[in-house]
Amino acid sequence: MQYVALIVALFFATPAAAASFDAPKRKSGLWEIKMSSGQAKDMPAMQQCVEEKTDDPTKMAGSQKMQCSKNEMRKEGDKIVAESVCKVENSTAKTRAVFAGRFDSAYKVDIKTTYEPPLSGMKETSSVIEAKWLGQCKAGQKPGDISMPGMPNINMDEMRKGATKQP
C-alpha cells in the first residue's frame, strides 16, 4: 500500500501542475479506480465520490512535502501528458504519465517513474490506473470519499485541505 501512495503522490507532486490548458475534471458521481503495477499486484478497486466543481486531480495530500524541479502538464493530440522531476528521500524521481479517454465516462493513465539512485531497491516502476464512472455517489457519501475493501474510508478533499494548512 505504501508503494501505491508513493506512485500517486509522485504523479500529483505539486499543488498545481503547470498546464497550457484547463485540465479536465471528472464527471460528478461515483468512480471506480483500479491500479495495477509489478509492485502492487491484485489490488482491489477503490471507489471515489467526485464533485466536478471541486475535483482537482492535480492536488494531492502530502504533496507539499516533495521538492519538484519540474511539473508540467500538456495536451498531445487526444492525450494529456504530465511530467515531473521530484526529490523523494535521497533519490530523484522522474515521472511521465499519459492520460487517455474521457473524464465523463472512463479514462486510463499509464505512469512510468525512474529513480536515481534507486529508491528502496527500485530503479523504475510502471503503473496503470483505469477509472470508470459508475453513476451517482452512494447514500451518505460526500465528495472526496474513497472506499476500498478492508480499509477505513478516507476523504481526499479533507486530506488536501489539511495538507495546505501545514507550514
Provide an overview of this structure:
The structure is a single chain. With 167 residues, the protein is mainly beta. The protein has one domain. The chain has 2 helices and 10 strands, in the order αββββββββββα. β4 (67-76) and β5 form a beta hairpin. The relative contact order is 0.23.
Brief summary of the model shown:
The protein is mainly beta.
Helix content: 10-25%
Q: Tell me the fraction of residues in β-strands, as a range.
A: over 45%
Strand order of the largest sheet: 1-4-5-6-7-8-2-3-9-10
Overall shape:
globular
Using the CA coordinates, give the radius of gyration: 15 Å
Main pleated sheet: 10 strands, mixed
Integer count of domains: 1
Count up the helices. Answer: 2
What pattern of helices and strands is seen along the backbone? HEEEEEEEEEEH
- Sequence stretches where pLDDT stays below 50 over 5 or more residues: 1-16, 60-64
The chain-level structural class is: mainly beta
Query: What is the terminal-to-terminal distance?
Result: 26 Å
Report the strand count: 10
Mean model confidence by pLDDT: 81
Give the quaternary arrangement of the chains.
single chain
Q: What's the helix and strand layout?
A:
Blueprint: H1 2-11, E1 18-19, E2 29-37, E3 46-50, E4 67-76, E5 79-88, E6 91-102, E7 106-119, E8 122-135, E9 145-147, E10 154-155, H2 156-165
Parallel strand pairs: 1-4
Antiparallel strand pairs: 2-3, 2-8, 3-9, 4-5, 5-6, 6-7, 7-8, 9-10
Describe the structure using short key phrases.
10 strands; mainly beta; single chain; 167 residues; globular; 10-stranded mixed beta sheet; disordered N terminus; 12% helix
